[in-house]
Amino acid sequence: GAVVSQHPSRVICKSGTSVKIECRSLDFQATTMFWYRQFPKKSLMLMATSNEGSKATYEQGVEKDKFLINHASLTLSTLTVTSAHPEDSSFYICSARDVEGSYNEQFFGPGTRLTVL
Amino acid sequence: QKEVEQDPGPLSVPEGAIVSLNCTYSNSAFQYFMWYRQYSRKGPELLMYTYSSGNKEDGRFTAQVDKSSKYISLFIRDSQPSDSATYLCAMLEVAGQNFVFGPGTRLSVLP
User: Fold this and answer.
1) pLDDT-flagged residues of chain A (< 70)
2) Taking Cα atoms as reference points, which of A24, A114, A18 lies closest to residue A77?
C-alpha cells in the first residue's frame, strides 16, 4: 500500500522555538495533504488542508500564523509550529490523498510527538 | 448532535471473542465509510472501506453499513491481543471531500 512518512517522529523543544515537521508521500503523488492534531485518548482534529502550489485552508480556530503549512511539491508538505508553547504539545499526524484511488483514499503518516518544555 | 458518534470505550474482551464496533451518523449524504485502526502513538491505518450499503469481509474483519439506520459496524472474529488499538470510523459524502472521523473506540483484547 501507499506509504507516508513523517519526520521527525519525536521532538522536544524549548518554549519560544519553532519546529518544522515534514510529511512525505513515498510512492505516490499527493496533490492534497492534511494535517491533524490528536490529544491523548482523543480523536483526530483536522487542522488544515494543504494543496500543492497553493495556500493551505485552515479549519476554524486554527491560527494560520502559528501553524505554517507549505506544500511545495507533490510529495512533500511541511508544518511549522512557530514560537511553540507548552500548550502546543501534542501528536501531529499528516495524511496524503492518493488521487488515483477510487474514493480519494487518505494514507496517514506515523505521527510526530511534539513536547514543548 | 455530533456528526459521527462512537462509544469511546474502553472495550475489553477475552482473546478469541467476537468484537462489534459501531458508529452512528446524522448526515444521510455520507456514501463512503472507512474503518481505521490506530495503535498507541502511531498514525491510523486503513482497515476497510465500504461504498454505500452492504457488507464487506476481509479475513477476520467484516464491515457492515446500514444507511437506512445511519449505522455502521466493524466485526472482528477470533480477536487477538494484537487487535488491541483504537478503532476510528470515517465517512465522506463524495470522493475528494474531507473525511469526518468518529472519536474512536479503544479496544483491549486480553490474553
Assistant:
1) 1, 99, 101-104
2) A24
- The pLDDT of residue A10 is 96
| Lookup: cell for B68 | 437506512
Q: Which string of b and e fits B15-35 if b means at least 16 CB within 10 Å?
A: eeeebebbbbbeeeebbbbbb
- Please tell me the distance from the alpha carbon of residue A65 to that of residue B19, in angstroms, as a whole number: 44
Residues of A with CB under 8 A from a CB of B: 1, 4, 6, 34, 41-44, 46, 49, 91, 93, 95, 102-111, 113
Beta carbons within 8 Å of B31's beta carbon, 6+ residues apart: B51, B52, B92, B93, B94
Q: Please tell me the distance from the alpha carbon of residue B48 to that of residue B55, in angstroms, as a whole number.
A: 11
Contact A108 B101 (CB under 8 A): no
